[in-house]
Amino acid sequence: MGASEPISQADAALAAASSPAGRDILDRVVEFFKPLDGIHHANAFELTFWTIADAMSRASGADLTSIWVPNPNTQQLQLACSTLRGKDQLPEELPFRDTRSGNAIATGKPRFYPDLHAYIPCAGSRTLERSDLTKMWCVPLLAPSLGLPNDVVAVATVHFKTESRADQLGDPFVTFCGVRAGRVIERALWAEQDAVVQQVYRAMGGIDQGVWSIMDEVAATIAKLLHFAACSILLADHTVDVLHIIGTTGIRSPKPRPEWLYAYNQGATGRVAATKQIIASEDIDKETWCPGPSLFPEVVDGHRARQFLAAPICSPDGRLVGVIRLRNKQQHEEANWPLRLNHLDWLRIERVARVLAPLLSLTAEKMYQESVLKRIRHDQKAPANMIRNFASYYVHLKREKLVQDLDALYQGLEDCESLADLIITNADLTRIDAVSGIDLKPEHDFLLSGFVARVCKMFRRICREKGLKGPVFDDDFHAIPKLWVDPILMQIVLYNLLDNAAKYSHSNTEIRVASECMTSDEGKRYRIHVDNWGIGVSEADRERVFDRQFRTSEARGLAVTGLGLGLTIARAIVERHGGRLSVTNLTTPTTFTIDLPGILATRAPQ
Predict the structure, then answer these.
(1) Per-residue pLDDT tens for 75-89?
(2) Are 81 and 208 in the same domain?
(3) Are residues 206 and 343 in the same domain?
């Protein structure tokens, strides 16, 4: 470490204790703290504090040791454990301000108090006086790796009888006790995190066998480790800004699981997604920003799930992939662990969220790929069967008949080319990744007229077979200049719009593609309109048709299959280009409009 670099309280204490004069201090503390090295922290994090309190009492000869955990959210210190026996009890909470423990947090240094009223009055003085515990050390427990103010993770109050020589212990001794205790807490946190990591990697290895059961098992492990009655893991869906519960334990609800949706900024869970911040509440029903129990119908062990702690799960680049949520803290059977939320609960859920990030990223990618592959398999069957039927017909046709049918053969070959393009376009959907987003590969000097003509040609045979006219497109496309766009992805957009038009249009009607150049307050705009005379879209469904897996009641009533992904993908592609995709006319005809910004004529989308 360079001379100019700051040295932490923990490093200074270790250096002092390691000096020749401090060797007896080091040996004495190590002797009494050695049993803590054998604790299996992952299964009993709360017991760590009991063993620390016991070790500090024995190492210092103290008559009573208590450990307090800070809660910066409420500016209170909460009693984690105490070696006090009998009917007398210490307060459950202390304020930060004007308390000895609060002073230890603010300074990061231990301090000796010769009596209960020296310097700063002592909390619970009557209880301590009755036991003749008048002298005390207030010792911060230092954990440098956790990034806390002054490295303080907790505070120990160490009390002595009036006749003791507690003042002779000295700062180096009690400081090193605090460092040694802090190291134990750090190791306990790491052990707990390692247990979650092991469960997460087991889940990642078995994710192909079923997402739901795997994620329920992960949630159960986290709830058990952190001692909460219920844990839920939610996956973020940015296409519609909602969270889906994909793993949960300890919760009963009248709603079926697919309906457990939380919109961003809706209630406490949605607030975590919108703000990307940890949120904690002792009673969720009393929070002014929470709309009330109607959003939280869950029951945990027969009680309303009022206590709430949740953290955002983010990828390394800061994108939200989900939320981890805990409900109703539980008492550890062997420790008087405070049931109120404290700063260690913040730290623990934050570490768990960091571990869950790769699992949720993998889950999102897998679920999205399954949807896309299902759609590709469905959409490729029709053109593949047409190509096979065409080939089968001409393979068995006699040579003389083939010569007579030459014009029909050329038409059929042209149709096969278009059908093959349909298959290739569907295959290109795999470029759209649910986790990392849409990977644009824009090309300059791209004419919209070229790709519109190409996609319209693909659908002519399909339209003929369905008794439809078109698709036809106007010549005004030549008025649109060359643009910076991704030609393959823009082709997918128009393909989806024409595919829907062909599915839902009435017989003997026409599908038309038109263009428009216009100037608005936003500047130059280039638009592509797709018109069809079909089942239409209601005003209520104008925006919902772009939601993933949504199909209108009219569409479900027809003998038409679909996964509800096409318009979601199409809108995401257009928005990635800086444009908009919307329903601009609901009926007679139904019109979907691709609206692209004029800036694409001069530069690639950002």
Answers:
(1) 788 888 888 765 557
(2) no
(3) yes
The confidence score (pLDDT) of residue 4 equals 39
Question: Which contiguous run of DSSP H or E holds residue 555?
Answer: helix 553-557
**Percent helix, strand, coil in the chain (nearest 5)?**
50, 25, 30
Tokens of 374: 């299902």
Rg of the chain (C-alpha set): 34
Average pLDDT over residues 23-49: 63
- Interacting residues of 463 by C-beta distance below 8 A, sequence separation 6+: 469, 470, 471, 502, 511
Element (H, E) at 576: helix 566-576
- Residue range(s) defining the domain that contains residue 457: 440-601
Same domain, 244 and 330: yes
- Strands (E) across 209-289 are located at 228-237, 242-249, 261-263, 279-281
Euclidean distance between the first and final Cα of the chain, in Å? 44
Helix axes 171-205, 9-18, angle to 10 degrees: 120
CA 539 → CA 112, 379, 586, 590, distances in Å?
Answer: 73, 28, 7, 12
Angular region, 265: left φ>0, alpha ψ -120 to 50, beta rest: left
Report yes or no on 137 lying in a domain: yes
Structural domains in the chain (count): 3
Nearest to 600 by CA among 432, 439, 448: 448
Of 148, 155, 134, the residue nearest 67 (C-alpha): 155
Helix (H) or strand (E) run with residue 573 in it = helix 566-576
Whether omega before 471 lies within 30 degrees of 0, making that bond cis, reads yes
Predicted TM-score (pTM) of this structure: 0.59
| The pairing of beta strand 437-438 with beta strand 228-237 | unpaired
414 belongs to a structural domain: no
188: pLDDT strictly greater than 70: yes
| Pair type for strands 523-532 and 483-485 | unpaired
Query: H or E stretch including 420?
Result: helix 406-427
* Amino acid letter, residue 15: A
Q: 329 is written with which tokens? A: 């803290």
Q: Are residues 64 and 181 in the same domain?
A: yes
CA distance 424 to 431: 12
Helix axes 343-395, 406-427, angle to 10 degrees: 170
Which parts of 206-338 are beta strand (E)? 228-237, 242-249, 261-263, 279-281, 299-300, 303-304, 308-314, 320-329
Which ranges in 81-206 belong to alpha helices (H)? 100-107, 125-130, 171-205
Do 452 and 549 lie in one domain? The reply is yes
Q: Are 138 and 100 in contact (CB under 8 A)?
A: yes
Closest CA to 48 of 170, 180, 162, 160: 180
Q: Among 363, 367, 261, which Cα is nearest to 315's?
A: 363
Q: Does one domain contain both 242 and 156? A: no
Residue-wise over 35-60: b if at least 16 C-beta within 10 A, else e?
ebeebebbebbbbbbbbbbbbbbebb
Contact in structure between 297 and 255 (CB atoms under 8 Å): yes
Q: What pLDDT sits at residue 360?
A: 77
Name the burial class of residue 531, with classes exposed (0-12), middle (13-18) and buried (19+) by CB atoms within 10 angstroms of its CB.
Answer: buried
For residues 145 and 259, state if they share a domain.
no
pLDDT at 594: 93
Give residues with Cβ within 8 angstroms of 553, minimum separation 6.
none
Whether residue 357 is found in the same domain as residue 238 = yes
The reply to whether 233 falls in a domain is yes
CA–CA separation, 335 and 136 (whole Å): 24
Amino acid at 175: T
